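STRUCTURE REQUEST FORM
Protein name: Integrase catalytic subunit protein
Source organism: Marine Group I thaumarchaeote SCGC AAA799-N04
Requested output: structure tokens
Priority: standard
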Amino acid sequence: MVYMTKKTDYSLETILSPEELNGLKPRERSRYVQNLILNILSKNQDLTLSEIMEKTGLSRVTVSRHLDSLVSSQQVLKKERGMGRIHIGFYKLAGSVAKKEEFRSKKDDSLFFNFFVLDNGDSNSICIQQKEEDEYRNSKVKGAITIPFDDIKSFITYLNTYSARVVDK
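Status: completed
Returned output:
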């Protein structure tokens, strides 16, 4: 079994063999693979999918699926580089998180949103993660949006305009 020492520490105490990995329950396997990817990205910035596959020993489908999940939850950033029709995705850990706050839905206590500042070194953004808790109070990121500081005011203005048209009907 793999355990993280702290929530923000991606170091793994044990690397599992393919047989051990297949023996895990789906949720444990998913958590292990995501932590493994985060561990690799914490030591190496700007890796391609192929490089991550090589370092983990996992299939393209597995790594790709977990990277998509990590990107959608704003834990990993993806930048595409290339010209013409050929683009290569480069992955790196998202920046440090600061000023975290939580908003809970009034209708459904299991649904909540985390708001936080994401510092990526060269720019800051506000990130909003939609999370949901199961009956055991384990939370899972359902989706996220990141808005650069430079765009916040115009984004809020547009959101207010849009919601007035849609919600107030």
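Reviewer notes: The radius of gyration is 18 Å. The chain has two domains: 18-93, 96-151.
Form closed.
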